[in-house]
Amino acid sequence: MGSVFGNKLKISIFGESHGEGIGVVIDGLPAGEEIDLDEVYRQMQRRAPGGDKTATPRKEADMPEILSGMLGGKTTGAPLCAVIRNTNTRSGDYGNILSSPRPAHSDYAAFVRYNGANDIRGGGHFSGRLTANIVFAGAVCRQILKRRGISIAAHIYSIGNVKDAPFDPTGIDSELITRLNGEKFALVDTSKEDAMRETVGAAHAQGDSIGGIVECIVQGMPAGIGEPMFGGVENIISAAVFGVPAVKGIEFGSGFSGAALLGSQNNDEFYYDENGKVRTRTNNHGGALGGITSGMPIIFRAAVKPTPSISKEQKTVDLQTGENTTLAIKGRHDPCIVPRAVPVIEAAAAVAVMNML
Amino acid sequence: MGSVFGNKLKISIFGESHGEGIGVVIDGLPAGEEIDLDEVYRQMQRRAPGGDKTATPRKEADMPEILSGMLGGKTTGAPLCAVIRNTNTRSGDYGNILSSPRPAHSDYAAFVRYNGANDIRGGGHFSGRLTANIVFAGAVCRQILKRRGISIAAHIYSIGNVKDAPFDPTGIDSELITRLNGEKFALVDTSKEDAMRETVGAAHAQGDSIGGIVECIVQGMPAGIGEPMFGGVENIISAAVFGVPAVKGIEFGSGFSGAALLGSQNNDEFYYDENGKVRTRTNNHGGALGGITSGMPIIFRAAVKPTPSISKEQKTVDLQTGENTTLAIKGRHDPCIVPRAVPVIEAAAAVAVMNML
Amino acid sequence: MGSVFGNKLKISIFGESHGEGIGVVIDGLPAGEEIDLDEVYRQMQRRAPGGDKTATPRKEADMPEILSGMLGGKTTGAPLCAVIRNTNTRSGDYGNILSSPRPAHSDYAAFVRYNGANDIRGGGHFSGRLTANIVFAGAVCRQILKRRGISIAAHIYSIGNVKDAPFDPTGIDSELITRLNGEKFALVDTSKEDAMRETVGAAHAQGDSIGGIVECIVQGMPAGIGEPMFGGVENIISAAVFGVPAVKGIEFGSGFSGAALLGSQNNDEFYYDENGKVRTRTNNHGGALGGITSGMPIIFRAAVKPTPSISKEQKTVDLQTGENTTLAIKGRHDPCIVPRAVPVIEAAAAVAVMNML
Amino acid sequence: MGSVFGNKLKISIFGESHGEGIGVVIDGLPAGEEIDLDEVYRQMQRRAPGGDKTATPRKEADMPEILSGMLGGKTTGAPLCAVIRNTNTRSGDYGNILSSPRPAHSDYAAFVRYNGANDIRGGGHFSGRLTANIVFAGAVCRQILKRRGISIAAHIYSIGNVKDAPFDPTGIDSELITRLNGEKFALVDTSKEDAMRETVGAAHAQGDSIGGIVECIVQGMPAGIGEPMFGGVENIISAAVFGVPAVKGIEFGSGFSGAALLGSQNNDEFYYDENGKVRTRTNNHGGALGGITSGMPIIFRAAVKPTPSISKEQKTVDLQTGENTTLAIKGRHDPCIVPRAVPVIEAAAAVAVMNML
Q1: How far is C27 from chain B (nearest CA, A)?
Q2: A168 touches chain C (CB under 8 A)
Q3: What is the dihedral of CA B276, B277, B280, B282, to 10 degrees?
């Protein structure tokens, strides 16, 4: 039942890469909320493969179809289901994965889990394509959150060893949020794009891939939201964000670097701002104390491992013959999914936040 | 409802630092499991404040009392409830926290969340003392897991900038597990203890505190356990481990450092070992692929922020007067909770693992 | 979030009567299970409006399309999504319901719940049409359950005051199960059909409707399944069965009539049967004791209220004018949904049982 | 995990009849709610065995102790835990139940479920004594609900064939609610008490027991509360009420008798009352339409089977010898638990209602 997330707002994701279609059911949306589907599609384009640096619009076939839950541009309160048809299956590209699990892919683990009955074509239910559903659900949620004063933005914090300028953890301005929300290669400091693309290109040239880190900020959360212990901001966001394939770590506020600090360095001092609102001057706590929002932005970083699919030859096993073998993954593969992970992680955060309100 | 965790095995934690008592109800334990309560108490002593480097036994009053769920040393299958009485309240130590929220503590967030009705004495429900319940629940689970071939160990990966030798992520030997499971200051390389204690002592001498990182390994998990997307190993473990106060980050396998690697560096190649078992030579994936166990150890690190309670003067607000003020936290405080976080994080992992089987 | 049911097996239902389509996502199905979709469609036909007493096949358009979770006729272990398109909307039939809530329909309650934003055409998400999804999910589950020796059958226990012969609560033979599973008007004693149809016809002739009772049996459940208190057989089955619109009561075993009995009359005595299996000679307990299966059949009855839609004039309010008014529901309506409720209730029971195993 | 109920408000019940103690953890209570514990205890006395028709106060030992979640008479927002010690174990009374399961008790089902490891003394976790926890939780909830205008009352609808006057389903007056809430033998028409006591006495004289029906009303629920399908009023209330041992059926509004009616008889017509509020003149729907409250009282009846424990000789099996045998249950037993079930069912309804708001 891993494909269902949430409590106050439940999303139920379905689909396999090369099946008939993929989609998501969102249950628990408030009724009467206007949803701009064009904006939803724009968010989905940010995640879609290809299109980066080009004006090529996505094919109509990739448009989600709304089967339920919307009427006259507004939510009805009933579960909202969106379906995206699969049209381009290319199953030939992956002809050998049944026998030879791809290193660092879910192939082997899923083979054991499902006794070999799972659909392995294109990664099946584990395909990155399924994240389109998360983006869809998140984009719907973000419009509702925005109306409640809550904005979410993320950027490529790093690719390989190339770093963007970090977010100001005490808050970023709305122009930056708007700009980032519209980009496929989202950077605070756009001058870093060339260096990052070079890093990606160098990996690609060798048939390799490269990982990175995504940083995400949630602004406008009122103080006092969340639950202690297992119902805290970090628990819920991490449970959602680890639902994004390739995420292998998450840290809030100063996170791992804060673990090397003194209390006097890491503690965020409170003060009354000019409007009489309690704030902190720094935001090492990342917006949550005891699991509950402090009123400061929620800020977290997620580690995205390098795409497992590489064309370099790798050692693996042959599950059919029971012998060790080698594998070079044929066909196109994306050498760096970090830019495309940005809107997915924003969306996962949005779904998580909807579950806190 | 943040104090309830789990699905297949549910733990429900209650208590406030200075109330009558704290405790936990564990629902979903298999019946007929022998539980060595002395071993459970030993695990609880590893977390207990004081006692480190001394032979002083804990006071009887701190012993958990089993109210239900055990008969003749075995689980009955009914919910197991353990209660620990609070005897030493020292509420005077924290006399000013109502008006002045301690920086980096839950005080302010909880004040807003509960409209000031929460028990603030000693941190109330947010007190680190509540983690005794997690250790209790985890210690019970660990005995059951051990009978199924699953062992859990953790160590102080770092305090400040002093690092222990890391775990071999492909597996550690049972002697090391046994030794670590018995220690209050758990290190792979015990020669690092002096340097770590010096770091802690230096912080303490200045009325300050210091953070650190805990590394945890779960060995013996069969391959094929877990669910895709939101039901994966990382989702469930992170949702449990962020239930431990002061944890601000978690990473699996190569985690954040893996995000800077090439795919060819980070991918773990499969091979058949001498027993015909599929394994990987490295374990950058940390034991889970697509959320599902690979049969390799689950390995993760959790960032523990420095204890917020420090006696150095800090700026804060006075919620009663509405003015900015300063605060120096009086009374004893533990300058480094990282050693005591080790058994708590092991326990949280144990509860998480019980929810996967 | 009311449209999601279950824990071990989760079904997530979506759709509105006059929207694009309806459907269900089933998460948690075991992988590798062969599913005969023709048999699934046959079960859906038993619920479908019309077709009773005729050989007219349903239109292709009403066939569910499987979007995911099946490959080569077997479950893949990934969420199974089935979608049924809506083609025939007839929204004109219900032109006045926005202003005048139909007595005993969900119209008024939903209007308040969703601030008038819900899709009211044809009842929207509350339409009986949505039960097609329950039948779909149940029919899939029933094939899996059958392989584990568990069969489910139901019949029209009564319509109005005309009663069928009741099930033998200690068990019915497999021929009867097979016969009932294939019928649209399922009766133990088929000689009662004429009297029931007369009762329905008499109501219909007056523009009225008539209620009834469905009795359902689950055979082959091993003893020892279920949880105490809130996780018992009765809790789970009732939570599922009240998901079927129009069900207003449920009783297990002797149920309400047992409440008038002496203990010595109602208690079911245990004995060893010829195979050394513990059984009871009577089955007033309905297969569950303390919420846990006894090994005897689970037997329950569900009260189905008369269809609210009647063409007789009724009093109601006009929500637009704020005045009392009258209403006669135009268009076709089914004067008795009890026969069609039979496969829906069987299906709800099947989904509930899958959540116990 | 059957001993945990709820989502918005979770109760986690623990304890065995003859263990150290029983209790409940209530997670999700709003903070700052004043709770009159004397009133809570009074509700618990209504359920307590003995004391009926006498002035004997319960022993201090039976008083619940609040371990957490309350401070200065108000809820803190943290989980509230109450524990009741077991002092009087009388395990000798039930010396033979290990070998011979009592007909209609959970003994046999639990024996299989827990492989014989469960605590069988006094019924263990299945003991009716555990319902004290439900009454505790419900009594706390009822005080909170009352402040929101919601009242709950129940009465003995029938014992055997003796019936009380039914509730007016469109609403009862507050005096009747107050009176019923204070009684151990709660009747609308108190003149029926003698006949009911005679029926009970006659059963008792023969070493037998007798069942009955409890009717419960929830007044003051606003319209528009609840979710469609599986999250409806009936689903949630039935899932809670079937948590009360001995309940074998539940019906809402006209329930089973409504199943014999015509739509024109069973439909409740809407009208505007003198305050412009939408109401229905009858309440056959029992306060919920499509699972969502209509603003009319929620009314339901629960069938309570006769107590299984009777001193008459009954047939059963001997699980040790594998032979058929007989059993006469020794010791005191309550010949009719219906009066004591009244406050338990009210409490279960209160917990259910808290989960809807």
Answers
A1: 11
A2: no
A3: -100
